[in-house]
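2024-03-11 09:14:02 INFO receiving multi-entity request
2024-03-11 09:14:02 INFO entity count = two
2024-03-11 09:14:03 INFO echoing inputs for audit
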Amino acid sequence: MVGGPQTHRLSNGGLIDRSAPLSFRFDGKTYVGFQGDTLASALVANGVKLVGRSFKYHRPRGILTAGSEEPNALVELRSGARREPNTKATTAELYEGLEVASQNRWPSLRHDFMAVNQLFAPIFVAGFYYKTFMWPAKFWEAIYEPAIRRAAGLGRAAGVADPDHYDKAWAHCDVLIAGSGPAGLAAALAAGRSGARIILCEEDFALGGRLLADGGTIDGRPAAEWISRTLAELGSMPDVRIMTRTTLFGVYDGGTYGAIERVNDHLPSPPEHQVRQRLWRIVAKRCVVAAGSIERPIVFAGNDTPGVMMASAMRTYVTRYAATPGKRIALFTNNEDGWRTVEAALGAGLQVAAVIDARPDVSPAHRSLASKSGFTVLHGSVSSVEGGKDGVRKIAVLLTGGARAEVEADGLAVSGGWNPAVGLTSYHRGRPKWRDDIAAFVPDGAPPGMVAVGAANGAFGLGACLREGFEAGAAAASDAGRNGNAGAAPVAEDEAFSLTPLWRVAGKGKAFVDQQHDITASDVELAQREGFESVEHLKRYTTLGMATDQGKTSNIAGLAIMAAVSGKSIPETGTTIYRPPYVPIAIGAFAGHHRDEAFHATRLTPSHHWAAEQGAVFVDTGLWKRAQWYPRAGEKDWLESVTREVKSVRGGVGFCDVSTLGKIDVHGADAGAFLDRVYINTFSNLAVGKARYGLMLREDGLVYDDGTTSRLAEDHYFLTTTTAKAGPVMQHLEFCRQVLFPELDVQLTSVSDQWAQFSIAGPKTRDVLKEIVDPAEDLSNEGFPFMGARKVALRGGIRARLFRISFSGEMAFEISVPARYGEALVRNLMQAGKQFGVTPYGTEALGVMRVEKGHVAGPELNGTTTASDLGLGKMMSTKKDFIGRVMAGREALIAPDRQVVVGIKPTDKVRRLRSGAHIIPKGQTPGPDNDQGYVTSVCFSPTLDQWIGLGLVERGRERIGEIVRAHDPLRGEEYDVELCNPVFYDPDGGRQRG
Amino acid sequence: MRIVCPFCGERELGEFTYLGDAKPARPAADAGEDAVFDYVYLRDNVAGAMSEHWYHSGGCRAWLKVTRNTLTHEISAVEPAAGAGAAKVGA
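2024-03-11 09:21:47 INFO inference complete, emitting structure
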């Protein structure tokens, strides 16, 4: 046991385990609390009142609440990579060794240099960002913002990667219940007995809601007994899941809800293989919101002094945690419920200095309690609180009738009434409605399938909570088709309700509405004077309610003050839109496991592992990792490796994994007719055993994708797409098949992952293939001519598909084998091809050879080019309709001055051509008016021994031989280039047909 | 949001890909440029029930016609496209 005594801990009572002391550090000092404490209750028990400094003015702040609505007691938990800023001390569970630091103070919490901000308070009024730092504009980024960020702010992020894991999960149920107070537990009881599958989410680590602090009598027994009996009954049901430390934070379409489960935040670090938090998406047929209500403050001067606390919070600390926020306390209330704090304080042996009650009268029972216990009841309001970082000292009271009084106390409990938690019910843009009888907003309807009960619905009495919860639970179960016998509802009496609305007491000194953002009552008045009367404007102009607490204790007070100063009623003034999440959610929880290398899926080609063994350099293309080149010892850079690979193919033989291409089997009697409609050229007349290059347009007439399609049987085509468009083309073709042309007898099967495909290219291709393919197969030019395609058997009997197609311009085949044989095929190719010098080549060499051959690829198929732009206009059939045909004929798409594909080479053979360079007529000054296009693709051509490229240039085809300027402002270069035939290599195509 | 796929049952939004208004019908081959222009480019901005094309990309790859209220996201009907579903044997 370490640390000093817990000076403010009662000797008995409370839901804490005194046999389990926990030591923790706050700003370097060691304290001790107990198992069952929150950080806030442990601080209270140790007499710590000052826990933070405020956002703008650096005013000393203490603990205001005992829940997730806390605006003030924000701290940094833990250290190093696990440091978590802006955490509410009121919800953080205490654990052994917890390290805590206060925020937004320098050099220390007690002596905060920045508190001088208070002296400059006039410049920090509402809208100060907009008014003060308007000019000069460039000062904003350089001077104003960094200065403001240093002076006003919250905690510090860890600054390094979070070492913990986060998870995402789905859950499904009949009835989802938010909250485990009397209404929530009663709903669970009724729904469970009816046979419903239930999920109950409770934000706290203990179940019972306000019953944990306030107790009461249910079914004639103490509330604690009813809780344990109810939990036992729920535990015996087959399909009831109770999730503590779990906040329901959002409502989405179709009965989908978001919840955050703080799985291991209550431990120093998550146990091995466990996550810190889990983000749940819960799909529920019905949802019962029993989220309770939030006690609201009354705004008066000095209401942010440490020691001023919500009345309900004060009695929570006293009864649930046996921790006393003061020795001699006072109560300021405008309603009956506040008096329960006085009863709790007296019960714990605290001194009560006075009760300041704003109502015209108090009940005789309370009067006699006052006289029996020796405190005075003052009719009036607290006009200011005197105190400082050590807490409340004196309370100034303005009595009804105008006289003044003073009360000496070290703690002030404040109750302004209760606001139902209307967040969840309003997240579909619902606006709550005002109820005069309780002076509060209550849900006005709810998203489909949801209902609010108990205090969340404005039913504050214990009896009403139980009744509403039970009825709603039974009804929800019944709606979900579960109609078992719900039995008898739990019964309790309702407490008396009496409230006289009071939002603000006028007085000298700062009176805070939004304590987290330091928004005062006069800021609200200023906003009104300057015309920001709408609550949405008020919110954005003053930032009221925009802090991490989302204004849970401040929004309603702010709009009530706005209503008063603008002479409107509260319902006329209205509320702002409620938006999720209800509590801050770590980005890590939304990401879950999708971070770092798991950010997206990674697809490996069938030859990947073999390529990795060869030391290949890989490049990411979409989700794929593709071998980019295969460096060899002694090669000084990529260009040397790529040049070697190209020369090996052109002079001998090489192979490349092209499995990433999209592959689709097209089956059916109408397969040919179908392809005729999706390609610009004709496929129905393609002979069986032949392949043909095809081009697809979008319906707007621009080029969509290209690839080779082969006819393997009368009713079977094998279609390939580009790597990038594999998924989109499949979706497009399914749309054409299912929606546009359902009358056609055709089926599509994506087989991209089923086939490993390799291009084998170069004059010695047949020599290598003969070692692989069954000797019975005829690979001669006659037996397997250019653009032939058929199924073959390999040595050993494996079935393969062989296509005599060429992207490189060489004599080439592409061979497909079932994907599981891909790696074996590569190893065989290397073995069999060794004697012929077979060379694996990567995507760079592939790209060099395609530029040399003038084939278009991604940079030219860029979504703005037509078939004609690409030099493929003649492929467009005039004898049939096809996707994009009509729109391709629009005026601008057939204009003669369009930029079209052309070859480009620098006139200076040693100059490097760069893609992206603009083409300008010779002798003209570069500028948008004479920009005639740009270089799309470049490579160093080992065959031509110079840099060459393709480009899109105005009227390019008519200008072959013209010398123009390549203007590259990005690299500060300008040089002469010649427009030339895009087919640099073997323009007659003799090599690929040989 | 959740969509009841006629083939796979109720599934989560992330399994589907949205295309857009299902009302425009592809004009006949001889309909002329204006009709095709309307089909490709002109769309109603519907506030209320709208029939839309959705693709069950993370499931059965069926194209669906979903009637969705653009104001509330309420889905009142889901039908398969005419050519969706199992192979039409003997067609």
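2024-03-11 09:21:48 INFO post-check: The domain at 662-750 of chain A is CATH 3.30.70.1400 (Alpha-Beta Plaits).
2024-03-11 09:21:48 INFO post-check: DSSP finds 24 helices and 49 strands in chain A.
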